[in-house]
Amino acid sequence: MNSLVIKLRILSYVLFCFRQVLARSEICSVSSLCQLCRPDEITAKYCLRTGRRVELTCRETSDSTPIIRHRSCNRTAQDDLLYFFEFQVAMFIIGLSAFYISQRRKLRHQSLYDQRSRRGSIKQNNNSSIIRNDCL
C-alpha cells in the first residue's frame, strides 16, 4: 500500500512538471537559411559545434513579442551546391572510365575477321588521306 502511494505521488509530480513544460512551450519558426557564423559569433554556444547557424523567431503566445534565437545547423546552401558539383564530377569520371573500359573490351573480344576488317579500313583511310594530300 505504501509503495502504491509513492508511485502515485511520483506520477502526479511528473504530470505536474509536464503540464508546466507545455504551458511554457514556445512556438519557433526558422526565419533565415543556414549560414556561416560571423567572426564575433564563433565562441557562441550555437556556433561551436558546426560553425554555422540558423535564425529562429520564437513566441511564447501568439500575441507576445518575437524573440530571436539561433541554433546550430549542418549545411549552408553553398555547401549543398559544392556537394552537388563534386557528385557530378565524380559521376562524369566514373562514366568516362566505364566507357573507356567497355571500348577496350569490345576491341579485345572482336572476332579475327572484325579485327582484320578494322585494320584494313584504317589502312585505307590512311592511304586515302595521303593521296588526297598529294593531289592538292
Task: Compute the separation of the termini in Å.
Answer: 115 Å
Total beta strand runs:
4
Question: Which sequence of SSEs, written as H and E, runs from N to C?
Answer: HEEHEEHH
Poorly predicted runs: none
- Classify the secondary structure makeup into a structural class: alpha+beta
Multimer state = single chain
Please state roughly what percent of the residues sit in beta strands, choosing from under 5%, 5-15%, 15-25%, 25-35%, 35-45% or over 45%. Answer: 5-15%
Helix content: 55-70%
**Can you give the mean pLDDT?**
81
CA radius of gyration is: 35 Å
How many helices? The count is: 4
For the largest beta-sheet, the strand count, sense and barrel status come to: 4 strands, antiparallel
**C-alpha geometry:** elongated
What would your notes on this structure say?
60% of the residues lie in helices and 15% in strands. With 136 residues, the protein is of the alpha+beta class. A hairpin with a 7-residue loop joins β3 and β4. The N and C termini lie far apart (115 Å).
List keywords for this structure.
alpha+beta; 4 helices; about 140 residues; elongated; four-stranded antiparallel beta sheet
Q: What is the compact description of this entry?
A:
With 136 residues, the chain is of the alpha+beta class. The protein has four helices and four strands; from the N terminus they run αββαββαα.
